[in-house]
Amino acid sequence: MNIFRNISATFWSSDIWLPPNITWQDISPNADNKYANHQHLIFALPMALVLLGIRYTLERYWFIPLGKSLCIKDIRSKRAEPNKILEKAYLNKKPKYKQILALAKQLDWSERQVERWLRLHRSQDRPSTLTKFCECCWKCLYHASAFFYGLVVLWDKPWLWDIKHCYYNYPYHSVTNDVWWYYMIAMAFYWAVSISQFFDAKRKDFWQLFIHHIATILLLCFSWVGNLTRIGSLVLLVHDSADILLEAGKLAKYANYQKVCNCIYAVFVIVWIVTRMGVYPFWIIYSTSIQGPKIVPIFPAYYVFNSLLILLLFLHVIWTYLILKLAYRALNAGQIEGDIRSNSSDEVSDTLANNIPTNNNTNHVNKSNSKLKTN
Q1: 3-class SS of residue 125
Q2: Cβ neighbours, 10 Å, residue 281
């Protein structure tokens, strides 16, 4: 027990979490000053369960009927026929060409038949378009609500207009009720999506998204415990703005409104670059890295907090590359293909695979063509 007490005392040392000569007693929540209470972080977990309940209720009674009214079908991929030999091979990494040849000989199949079975097996658990539509509806609704609520909450706050107010008189920053709710709802949402991500549509940037969610949760926790809620609230506001358009563009794509999708995507690219690659690094991170240390003495937890902000920027750079790559393809093709930020895994290849004939059929067609040429 003494070991755990020593570890806890070291972890929660004011020398780590607070500026020099400041103690936890100095920012203890009381009737006069409502400072951030680290014990309130636990509230985000039951709130996450509430959000999941709201999400699945809305999906059942609102989003699914809406999707069906837009003629979005709940059709899933064909299921691969049971095959113990191929199922065993599927459990390993993606089979190489030599392995496919060996499997084809063992089963007396063509190579194309083996490849098609493997593709079908990969795609059979992929959610339908309607399922992905409902997922995007929920995210779009949340980000829109959070963004406009954040604007209302922060509109009369001085740090929205002059970011240096995030450091003046730090750490003696009271947390008002509206900021408390803004923080807790955001934290609950990211806990909820971190859980539901394992059940939602799997995408190529699955792990980038997961790291993003965990980094955001850690960022919110660190800023809450260290009473850096002013910077944290600005980070939330900047992130929500582009995510609205991201999910709205996907909804338009799933509903087959291609022109609407193209227009939303064009606006999204502009907003994303302005907020994620402009406002975020040159306003927020510049403030935390350059301006903040000139006003407030730096302490260990601040370095961790700032490192998490930079980690998010690194993820933004990766996604910006994917977005610009898709934009280039879209300009050549004349329309947006697939999801705006990342396509579902193997979506295109699996779709093609379902329509490719086997080698036997191909040989039959080739023979027929030869006969026609001879005649």
Answers
A1: coil
A2: 17
Whole-number Å distance between alpha carbons of 352 and 241: 35
Secondary structure class of 49 (helix, strand, coil): helix
* Token pair listed for 218: 């850690």
Length reported for the chain: 375
Handedness of CA 250, 254, 259, 260 (dihedral sign): negative
Tens-binned pLDDT, residue by residue, of the chain (375 aa)? 678 888 888 888 888 888 998 999 888 887 677 888 888 999 999 999 999 999 999 999 999 999 999 988 776 556 666 666 666 666 555 666 677 777 777 777 887 877 777 777 666 656 788 988 999 999 999 999 999 999 999 999 999 999 999 999 999 999 999 999 999 999 999 999 998 888 776 666 677 788 878 888 988 998 999 899 999 999 999 999 999 999 999 999 999 998 999 899 999 999 999 999 999 999 999 999 999 999 999 899 999 889 989 988 998 999 899 889 888 887 777 655 555 455 443 333 333 233 333 333 434 434 444 443 443
Is 80 in a helix, a strand, or coil?
coil
Q: CA 302 from chain center: how many Å?
A: 25
In sequence order, the 6+-apart residues with CB closer than 8 A to the CB of 225 are: 17, 36, 38, 41, 301
The answer to whether the bond into 171 is cis (omega within 30° of 0) is yes
Q: What is the pTM of this model?
A: 0.78
Could you tell me the CA-to-CA distances from 136 to 55, 132, 133, 201, 336 in Å, in that order? 11, 6, 5, 10, 17
Residues 120/217, Cβ–Cβ less than 8 Å: no
Q: Give dist(CA 300, CA 19) in Å, integer.
A: 9
The closest of 232, 231, 202, 207 to 217, measured between CA atoms, is 232
The candidate with the shortest Cα–Cα distance to 41, out of 191, 236, 239, 196, is: 191
66-84: b (≥16 Cβ within 10 Å) or e: bbeeeebeeeebeebeebe
Count CB-CB contacts under 10 A for residue 101.
Answer: 13
